[in-house]
């Protein structure tokens, strides 16, 4: 699998299918959900616009969509089900581990026992209107290594039963990424990766084990779109305004000053070759490794069109990549 060189904008999946090396992340289209008063979504959404954006992405050749059972307390999966349904030419990846109440839009805990996993799978199948889940990912980032064995035993069983085609882990820890590579059907790691976080140890595991690198946060939660200035704040229902330990790119809903400086240092390099800043950030990921599949988020048709436009320009050239490294070293 994944035999395409770094110069390519296509990738071969675990099932032998070749697709464009760009997916769409569906966290934002789930709409608001919360942990108490803390927002976990990206603000209000228009479902009709979301469906139109999904359809436009497919028209532009995109065939990989990533969601999770808790995004919008299940609403993201429902929107994807409405837009795509059981089409076998589109790959949908989802995740399990975080429970939510669809009525109150509240997070209710994190679980990984077999009964919960099986209920989550059935719920995701219903919401997505699928006969089988293409890719199911464990969503608990720092789950204990030894306890994860039982989780992936369950995933192997679900695969044998035909409920899922493949599985992986959404984790930023290389030791967790490497734990289950001997299991048939374990094909991917979803992890944070972008210009500001190149994660060499994770990429080393992924390349060494022949896995797929699904890149969440490829645009640093919107920072690498260039649309935020120091005085522009996110909305009240936006997770980027929450005081969360892992929210490093934004502080109090505004760009963190240290990341604003890094962005200024690489802006011109990322926009080389006629690329927008967004397209340059995606092109950086393609040049970083032949196994990367970025999944930028979207809420509008315009965002989808800009993201997909990066495919026409391809990965960044080696001299630009070297220039970016040097520029960031100076910041």
Automatic annotation (TrEMBL):
Pfam families: Aldo_ket_red (PF00248). Keywords: Oxidoreductase. The keyword rRNA-binding does not apply. It comes from the Bacteria. GO terms for molecular function: oxidoreductase activity. Its EC number is 1.1.1.-. The keyword Transmembrane helix does not apply. Gene3D superfamilies: NADP-dependent oxidoreductase domain. Residues 22-328 form the NADP-dependent oxidoreductase domain. PANTHER family: NAD(P)-LINKED OXIDOREDUCTASE SUPERFAMILY PROTEIN, NADH-SPECIFIC METHYLGLYOXAL REDUCTASE-RELATED. This is Aldo/keto reductase. The lineage of its organism: Bacteria, Pseudomonadati, Pseudomonadota, Alphaproteobacteria, Hyphomicrobiales.
């Amino acid at each position: 699998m994944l035999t395409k060189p770094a110069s390519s904008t296509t990738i071969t999946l675990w099932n032998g299918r070749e697709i464009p090396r760009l997916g769409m992340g569906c966290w934002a289209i789930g709409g608001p959900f919360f942990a108490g008063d803390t927002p976990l979504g990206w603000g209000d959404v228009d479902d009709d616009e979301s469906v139109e954006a999904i359809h436009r992405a497919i028209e532009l050749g995109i065939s990989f969509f990533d969601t999770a059972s808790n995004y919008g307390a299940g609403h993201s999966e429902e929107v994807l089900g409405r837009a795509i349904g059981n089409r076998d030419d589109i790959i949908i990846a989802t995740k399990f581990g975080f429970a939510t109440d669809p009525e109150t839009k509240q997070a209710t805990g994190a679980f990984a026992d077999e009964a919960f996993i099986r209920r989550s799978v059935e719920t995701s199948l219903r919401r997505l209107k699928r006969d089988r889940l293409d890719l199911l990912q464990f969503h608990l980032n720092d789950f204990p290594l030894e306890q994860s064995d039982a989780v992936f035993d369950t995933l192997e069983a679900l695969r044998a039963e035909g409920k899922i085609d493949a599985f992986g882990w959404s984790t930023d820890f290389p030791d967790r990424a490497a734990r289950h590579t001997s299991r048939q059907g374990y094909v991917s790691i979803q992890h944070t990766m972008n210009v500001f976080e190149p994660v060499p140890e994770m990429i080393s595991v992924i390349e060494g084990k022949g896995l797929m690198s699904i890149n969440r946060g490829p645009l640093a939660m919107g920072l690498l779109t260039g649309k935020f200035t120091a005085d522009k704040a996110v909305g009240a229902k936006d997770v980027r305004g929450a005081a969360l330990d892992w929210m490093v790119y934004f502080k109090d809903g505004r760009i963190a000053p240290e990341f604003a400086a890094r962005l200024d240092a690489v802006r011109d390099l990322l926009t080389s070759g006629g690329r927008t800043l967004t397209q340059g950030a995606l092109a950086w990921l393609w040049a970083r490794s032949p196994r990367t599949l970025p999944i930028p988020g979207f809420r509008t048709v315009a965002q989808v069109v800009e993201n997909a436009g990066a495919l026409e320009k391809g990965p960044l050239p080696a001299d630009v990549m070297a220039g970016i490294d040097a520029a960031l070293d100076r910041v």
